[in-house]
Amino acid sequence: MSFKNKVVLITGGSAGIGAATAKQFAKEGASIAIVGRNEAGLKAVAQRCDQHGSKTLVIKADVADDAQVKIIVEKTIKEFGRLDILVNNAAVLKNTTLTSPDVMETYDEVININLRAVIHLTSLAAPHLIKTKGNIINISSILGKTYVQTPQLMMYCLSKAALNHFSRGVALELAASGIRVNIVSPGPVRTHMLATLDNNKKVDDHVEPTALRRISEPEEVADVILFLASDKAKGVTGSDYCVDNGVLIKF
Ligand SMILES: NC(=O)c1ccc[n+]([C@@H]2O[C@H](COP(=O)([O-])OP(=O)(O)OC[C@H]3O[C@@H](n4cnc5c(N)ncnc54)[C@H](O)[C@@H]3O)[C@@H](O)[C@H]2O)c1
């Protein structure tokens, strides 16, 4: 899978799945713009990407801030002159309950980052993707389909369910322009996010709902993202690939 001469924009690229995805694209020859709030983390990832001879642009930005989202696209186009692949990966996980005093605050934060920012960035990136007949990968979660014993994650789950529906709608709208839009829905992946999912559990405890009795590494999710972004998947759009070690087959 070669991504030579392709430009990839990845949000949440300083850690976890986003960082692994940036490195895999770099290995395959892509130029990359990585976005996040943690500049030191982004620079460390960029350094690793550049070791493969790729050109990596670090963009420190909060995707929940409209003005900063505009700058993300402007900087990417100014640096590389084109955009081929958008990976909407940044997200947050926040616990709340319906009767908690912070319920609406949590709703605003989670929806702004996990959904609104994706819609905004996608709308600004779309004209550039239309020019290159590019494609979009949205990182959702199996929690967008079922609760897997996590009622306190209601806002996260609904943000991902809405993201799934948005993704299919965009796939339909942009198909006329030759653009593919796909979803990757991970189950448990060994990242900071999984470590904060449940204070009462260790990361390895999340093996429990999986049929394969294992937790994915971020690189495994990146592999599926690269496949969907590649010409090998030229007939795939509006699809939702689960990398969940078989959690969903048990529900
Ligand atoms: N780790 C898992 O088990 C798991 C499971 C299912 C889905 N996911 C999804 O995978 C994606 C990546 O998560 P991860 O596990 O790598 O988590 P992570 O916490 O390691 O990474 C999330 C990234 O998003 C960035 N981010 C968060 N809010 C941001 C904002 N407002 N502006 C810019 N960047 C922001 C963070 O800085 C971080 O780099 C997310 O969409 C997440 O919902 C993860």
Structure report:
With 251 residues, this protein is α/β, with parallel strands linked by helices. It has one domain (7-250): Rossmann fold (3-Layer(aba) Sandwich), CATH 3.40.50. The protein contains 7 helices and 7 strands. The chain has a 7-stranded parallel sheet, sandwiched between helices. Helix 5 links the parallel strand 5 and strand 6 (180-186). Helix 1 packs parallel to helix 2, helix 1 crosses helix 7 and helix 3 (66-80) packs parallel to helix 4 (103-132). The longest helix has 30 residues, at 103-132. The two termini are 34 Å apart. The mean pLDDT is 96. The structure holds nicotinamide-adenine-dinucleotide (NAD). Nicotinamide-adenine-dinucleotide binds next to helix 1, strand 2 and helix 6.
SSE layout and pairing:
Blueprint: E1 7-11, H1 16-27, E2 31-36, H2 39-50, E3 56-60, H3 66-80, E4 85-88, H4 103-132, E5 135-139, H5 154-175, E6 180-186, H6 192-195, H7 218-229, E7 240-243
Parallel strand pairs: 1-2, 1-4, 2-3, 4-5, 5-6, 6-7
Bound molecules: nicotinamide-adenine-dinucleotide.
Question: Could you give a quick summary of the protein structure above?
Answer:
The protein has 251 residues and is α/β, with parallel strands linked by helices. It has helices at residues 16-27, 39-50, 66-80, 103-132, 154-175, 192-195, 218-229, and strands at residues 7-11, 31-36, 56-60, 85-88, 135-139, 180-186, 240-243. The site of nicotinamide-adenine-dinucleotide (NAD) has 28 residues, from helix 1, strand 2 and helix 6.
